[in-house]
Amino acid sequence: MEDHSATPTLREEIRGGLAGEAVEYGQSPSLARTASQKLPHHDTASSENAKLESKEETEKTQDDSGLLSGLRLYLVFLSLMLCVFMFALDQSIVSTAIPIIVSDFHAFDQVAWIITGYFLTQCGLIMFVGQLLTVLKAKWMLLGAVFFFELGSLVCAVAKDMDTLIGGRAVQGIGASGMFVSILSVIATVTRVDQRAAFMSSFGIVFVISSVVGPLLGGAFTQHVSWRWCFYINLPFGGIAAAAVVFLLPARDPEKNDNVPDDMPLWKKLMRLDWLGTALIFCLVTSLLLALSWGGNQYSWKNWRIIFLFILGGLLAIAFVASQIWLDKRALIPLSLLKDRTVLSAACTIFFWMLAMLGGTYQLPLFYQAVRNHSPEKSGVDIIAFMLSVCVAIFVSGGFTTKFGRYYPFFLLGPPFSAVGFGLLYTVNANTAGSKLIGYQILAGFGVGLSFQMAFLAVQAQYHERPHLLPQATAVVTFMQLTGAAIGIGIVNTVQSVYLNTEIKRLAPDVDFELVRHSVSAIYTLPKAQQPAVVEAYVISITKSFIPIIIAVSLALISGAFVRNHSMLQKGGAGGGHMA
Fold first, then answer.
1. DSSP state for residue 522 in the 8-state scheme
2. DSSP characters for 188-219?
3. What is the pLDDT of residue 32?
4. Which residues pair with 567 in a beta bridge?
5. Average pLDDT of the segment spanning 311-318
6. What does the pLDDT read at residue 42?
7. CA distance linking residue 155 with residue 575, whole number of Å
8. Residue from 125, 88, 20 nearest 469 by CA
9. Which Pfam families match (predicted)?
10. Taking the domain 69-256, which CATH number applies?
């Protein structure tokens, strides 16, 4: 008789160690199972030795599989957090520097492109990056992305004209798209599935903190040094992150993919990528961002250019979907992903949450500046309650998911908090007490934080046993997150601008609308008799801007309900946990 009492548990630990990915380094799950059946046998007399040897073999196999632990894991994790900090910071750091940048370059008509140029390449290329990760190693993809981001930052920092600055922002966007998806892919390969909730929560907290710190840091640099330091600051951070990745992160081969044979030359693998879909999605994103950037600013929403861009966007969307169906498994979004309710639900949910979070992040400081006459820096401090509550809730939801393995409840718990919070913010006026404003912010932010990271955890759990599809599934969700940011800001700001125009004409017809729209500080340079009417117009327009946010939060509840309810815990080595 042979004693295998320890073997099944160890074998299952090996198989379940990496989110359903292969045990052997670079092997598919089926090969890993075959290998696990070949574990050595020992007689009864040496059962204790067998256990020790099996344990050593397990540890060795875990090392070979690419899993990291101890100091090495945390150093890699810190480098990834630096990357998240950089690309999240650059979404908002220039917001307070824009007036000075525009003044230096005398290019007010190009102001929207400072933000749009960054989002354009991010949104347009992120799904292509996800497909690239099916043929290239995540380590080298991440390093390449950091290089592009650093190059773009340097170009922006030394720019002598607006065109160069916008070009640098576009290059930054390329790097940011690569970093975002590569980081999520790396996390899936170096950690166990039950560890990921904690790591993802940390990324979420860094992302939110960066969004808060960005405007404050940008304002400080602009006021005390130079706006160029908004970009120079990325260089040392990127250098540290790149060094850690080079020396500490293993270069793991992509997961086995039946559509891309191992013996196929790299150039042929690259040729099999969905170049048509990439071109279509890039043009689609460009048309939508142009329409949202120009509409209500350079042209009215009824202008033929804006109408044409929206129609073009619709036609490109139809063409993109058709191309994905035609290319099937070679597509940017394989049909299996398009048919997966978890991917679709998670993607829609993160879109709505980004609209809500960034909509609130932009409108709340505007309220304090226009209605309370606070400086940009002071208004950043005023919304700390909102951002801290987001961070606390991310920590709470991440801790719960790590402990109990369940992310699904937070898809349902977050929206009610945020709906109540943003609903109360809709009721504020110029005389609302500061304590009430803080309380409303906490409610709204806590709901956002509870649900914010859950979309990525749902996709990680869903594709635990099909890791070759994980980069593309993650890219789809990330694309919708970025699109929610870009389109969401456009929708919320448009609603606010339209209502402001209407209310200024009704309450203060003698006031120059363009003057008070482009500079809230101009309100308090007006004659005293005109100021209350303009402030009231701002109050009405800002509260109305919470309507699309409340709608988005409600839709997040509906879409989140359709996500599959997996467990993130590995019990008995089950591949992807189990479904409730």
1. G
2. HHHS-GGGHHHHHHHHHHHHHHHHHHHHHHHH
3. 41
4. 406
5. 94
6. 44
7. 46
8. 20
9. MFS_1 (PF07690)
10. 1.20.1250.20
Q: What share of the chain is helix, strand, coil (3-state, %, to 5)?
A: 75, 0, 20
- Per-residue model confidence as pLDDT tens digits over 72-122: 888 888 888 899 899 888 877 887 777 678 778 877 667 778 877 888 888
Instruction: Give the span between the Cα atoms of 254 and 57, in whole angstroms.
Output: 24
Nearest CA among 481, 367, 505, 478 for reference residue 430: 367
Closest of 358, 451, 462 to residue 411, by C-alpha: 451
Angstrom distance (rounded) from CA 566 to CA 580: 6
Taking a C-beta distance cutoff of 8 angstroms, is the pair 22, 467 a contact? yes
CATH 3.10.330.20 fits 339-580, yes or no: no
Residue 481 tokens, joined: 């997150």
For the beta carbon of residue 494, count every other beta carbon within 10 angstroms: 17
98 vs 105: CA distance, rounded Å: 11
Looking at residue 177, the DSSP 8-state letter turns out to be H
Structure tokens at 181: 């998806």
| pLDDT score, position 151 | 96
**CB 421 within 8 Å of CB 441:** yes
Task: Give the number of other Cβ atoms within 10 Å of residue 511's Cβ.
Answer: 20
Please tell me the distance from the alpha carbon of residue 181 to that of residue 134, in angstroms, as a whole number. 12
CB 485 within 8 A of CB 119: yes
Q: Are 550 and 424 in contact (CB under 8 A)?
A: no
Lowest average pLDDT, out of 227-231, 265-269, 348-352, 493-497, goes to 265-269
Inter-residue contact 148 to 171 (CB < 8 Å) = yes
Domain boundaries, the chain: 7-64, 69-256, 339-580
Among residues 215, 263, 249, the alpha carbon closest in space to that of 376 is found at 215
pLDDT of residue 21: 38
- Of 125, 131, 175, 122, nearest in space to 151 by CA: 175
Domains 69-256 and 339-580 share a fold: yes
The predicted structure's pLDDT at residue 50: 47
**Which of 99-113, 290-304, 480-494 has the lowest average pLDDT?**
99-113
- Read off the tokens for 221: 């640099």
